[in-house]
Specification:
It contains 15 helices and 13 strands. It is α/β, with parallel strands linked by helices. The longest helix has 20 residues.
Length: 387
Amino acid sequence: MLHRNVAEGRDMHILALEPYYGGSHRAFLDGWSALSRHAWTVLTLPPYKWKWRMRHAAITFAQEVHEHSSANLSWDLLFCSDMLNLAEFRGLACREIDELPALIYFHENQLTYPVRVESERDYQFAMTNMTSALAADAVWFNSSFHRDEFLGALDAFLGRMPDYQPIDAVQTIRSKTCIHPPGVTRMLMRDRRKAGPLRILWAARWEHDKNPEDFFRALEILRRRGVAFRLSVIGEQFRETPEIFVRAQREFVDRIDRWGYQDSRAEYEAALAEADVFVSTARHEFFGLCAIEAALAGAIPLLPNRLAYPEIFGLGQNEDADRFFYDGSPEALAERLADLAALVAQGRSLVDQTGELRERLRRFEWPNLVPALDEAVEKVVGNQMRP
């Protein structure tokens, strides 16, 4: 699919290739290109069968780009996500495209992306990520945590090769990296809180790496202690609903406000606005967009002290950050939730506890983020034009 964002007076013209145009990949491209001072040509493929997308997108896009370049279109920069085999694409594309400075953005990677059993991991896709990073002129990650985890795992992975280990690959990639977080839509806070007990929100993909078991374990502790609360559990689901969610829906049915995938952005934002507290129990998170959006909507985030969360929410850098973290155990989470439920029962406002945090997080709103992204791509092009 072709998307055009061309206006007179734009500084540069960027060719963006997105093999998996959905979720965070789509939000990033749409959010940036809509406010960018540069012109964009965006070629996309639907978010379907990601393994096949990684295998064929280079061929498909090489053909499409050839057709568009034949129509007298020219570009200053090639932008793609980690779902593209950039090395293959540059080899297949015409010379004019191959010579463009290339920037790859890692939303995730296939070396440390969680799988249930490590033997299920297909290392061909991890190698694709590596060769794409080597083929790029600039490599952006959404968080320092993500970059360091990927490069650390890559170093260990290459060390297992029986011979011809590319010993300089990790340092070569690291020398080209920058951290550029994704942006978020500006969130509107609710006018007034709904009456009733503490409203708890868990919003994530319904998969094992988001660790729903610990979340429902914490809720069971609250129930045994007689703590009143309401519950919303939302997020992307797949063909089969994990059994843990089936059991939890049955066990907490009398406390549920929302359950399952929200059909529209408006419903999703309404769920965030209704929440008093947003909970993450994730064992893996490369960034944490939903946690930021929930906090901007007025919810108190309760986050495990791990992954990208300390980096994004300023743990150790801001005096008030400690109150938004717990040690990662269901027992500690239950204790924090019980304390918040007691404050709500006393008629205390929880929104007042997040004012400074919300101001800090506004740096992630697209209007505040895009100028820096635009300037960064100009530097990528400028660096490649130097003799």
